[in-house]
Amino acid sequence: MRRKGDLPTKTCLACGLEFTWRKKWERDWEQVKYCSERCRRNKPSSSSEAVG
Question: For 30-48, how does the pLDDT look when each residue is reduced to its tens digit (9 = 90+)?
Fold first, then answer.
């Protein structure tokens, strides 16, 4: 059995908090960038969107 401390972690691109691997992300962990749906919806806008 794996310990929680042994799981990989990433930093959320929206809020900057560190989050831990979850079973639901097992197949696409490489593509996960945000810690939650809320952060994914409020992701930082790119510079091209900010112009105008």
Answer: 999 999 999 999 988 765 5
**Neighbour count for residue 9 (Cβ, 10 Å):** 9
List of residues 6+ apart from 10 with CB closer than 8 A: 18, 19, 32, 33
The answer to whether residues 3 and 12 touch, using CB atoms and an 8 Å cutoff, is no
Answer for the pair 25, 32: CB distance below 8 angstroms, yes or no.
yes
DSSP string computed for 10-49: EE-TTT--EEE--GGGTTTGGG---SSHHHHHTPPPPHHH
**Nearest-angstrom CA–CA distance, 10 and 37:** 15
- pTM equals 0.71
